[in-house]
Amino acid sequence: MTEPIAIEGGKPERETFLPYARQVVDDDDVAAVVAALRSDWLTTGPRVEELEEAFAESVGTAHAVAYSSGTAALHGTMFAARIGPGDEVVVPTMTFAATAACVVYQGGTPVLADVDRDTLNLQPDDFERQLTSKTKAVIPVHYAGVPADVARITALAERRGLIVVEDAAHGAGASIGGRSVGSFGDMGVFSLHPAKQLTAGEGGIVTTDNAELAARLRRFRNQAMDTSGRERETAGAYAYEIEELGYNYRLTDIQAALGLSQLKKLAGFVERRRRLVALYDKRLAGLGLTLPFTPAGTEPSWHLYVVRLPLERLSVNRDRIFAAMRAENIGVNVHYIPVHRLGYYARLTGRRPEEFPVAEEAFARLLTLPLHPGMTDEDVDSVAHALEKVLARYEVR
Ligand SMILES: *Cc1c(COP(=O)(O)O)cnc(C)c1O
Q1: pLDDT of 299 higher than 90
Q2: Per residue in 195-204, pLDDT tens?
Q3: Last residue of a domain, one of 222, 243, 263
Q4: pLDDT at position 106 over 70
Q5: What pTM, to 2 d.p., does this model score?
Q6: Is 87 in the same domain as 76?
Q7: Which of 68, 77, 99, 249 to mutate to test the pocket of ligand 1 (most atoms within 8 A of CB)?
Q8: Which pLDDT score, from 0 to 100, does residue 397 have?
Q9: Over the Cα atoms of the chain, what is R_g?
Q10: Which of 227-241 are b and which e, b meaning 16 or more Cβ less than 10 Å from the residue's Cβ?
């Protein structure tokens, strides 16, 4: 006999719901935001600059440019890279749609590629297969906070004269041989959404060593004006010029204050995530799951803890396991529905699921388990026990 599971009327594993992600905001974060509210600058002021400097230093790049979201920041990189109609940009299909959307925003064409079996990151050989005379850039994603194979991707990009934008929205605090992600490509993009490793409520940051790209990124977020409001204020001048189309993608100083306060705690957040992941790995060993993979020489920062289900040993599919875990009060999720399966992108690209065998096989099995630094060891135990119970119920004998 197996234990009765909640979806069939048993007692839920947890009395309270455990979300898959959650921010940790403490009194010092609140105090930092309040101080910003009482200051002279609510937007585009000194706190934005301070956040940019601290972020650039933490990633090890010469420049960082703050945006109102990670998606806006990705859009900025496509503008800075001068992507336009007729240009192709290779993007892995196992990602959040924003990685592909940013190409379309500038009139370019996203070209989807399949992912690596172990990491679900952009597969370098499939990236190479997608190259045409129109390819201008590539956006590897550090999926779940596990570094992509940037050595092979940047080497190939360099031979073909392509721009590399790392989508490091999952990667704050992750590194390869001690060097931070976001510092390997021409530009790196981070997200400050509350589900990510650090938050500003909303926000995004582009890192780069290239001063010209940094200047273009700064203009683009501010209507493509060649001076900022603060610069004009300081100079006592009104004049500005606009030579290209820009947007309002500015981050507020209120958000920057929160981001700065969180950045000071990033190392601790990541350390806690790593301990929780080690605990999950130990508790889930022997259940037949495919657990997250760490490539040699990399130090992941674990935005997500994603397992793959042993469907050949189960009488039900992933969606039933998902529903059963939700009934146990465990906030499981699925990252991601591959981009090629989303209606808009399926129509735009004309690609078929069969062209992405690795992403398709993974998608059928994917289950994201809760992971955030506020979780206790007992929370991990409850997730592991619930999953063990649910898998046992549906195991084929
Ligand atoms: C979160 C995320 C983004 C977008 O970031 P926002 O700040 O939510 O706009 C981009 N790419 C990936 C892979 C993400 O997970």
Answers
A1: yes
A2: 999 999 999 9
A3: 263
A4: yes
A5: 0.97
A6: yes
A7: 99
A8: 78
A9: 22
A10: bbeeeeeeeeeeeee
Angle at 140 between CA 137 and CA 142, to 5 degrees: 160
Distance from the alpha carbon of residue 55 to the mean position of ligand 1, in angstroms = 17
Q: What is the dihedral sign for C-alpha 103, 199, 283, 327? A: negative
Nearest CA to ligand 1 atom 7: 70
- Contact at 8 Å (CB) between 144 and 292? yes
pLDDT at position 175: 98
CA torsion, ordered 65, 67, 72, 78, to nearest 10 deg:
-10
The rounded Cα 80 to chain-centroid distance in angstroms is 20
The per-residue pLDDT of the chain, averaged, comes to 97
- The domain that holds 46 is classified in CATH as 3.40.640.10
Domain boundary among the residues 201, 230, 263 is at 263
- In the reported structure, the alpha carbon of residue 181 is separated from the centroid of ligand 1 by a whole-number distance in angstroms of 15
Asked if residue 197 has its Cβ within 6 Å of ligand 1, the reply is: no
Q: Known catalytic residues?
A: 196
Q: How far is the CA of 58 from the centre of ligand 1 (A)?
A: 20
Compute the distance between CA of residue 318 and CA of residue 119 in angstroms, rounded to an integer: 19
- Domains identified in the chain, total number: 2
pLDDT at position 1 over 90: no
Question: Are both 84 and 230 inside the same structural domain?
Answer: yes
**Residue 105 falls within a domain, yes or no?**
yes
Does the Cβ of 340 fall within 6 Å of ligand 1?
A: no
**Claim to verify: residue 220 and residue 95 sit in the same structural domain:** yes
Beta strands in 250-312 (DSSP E): 298-299, 305-308
Domain residues for the domain of 202 are 27-263
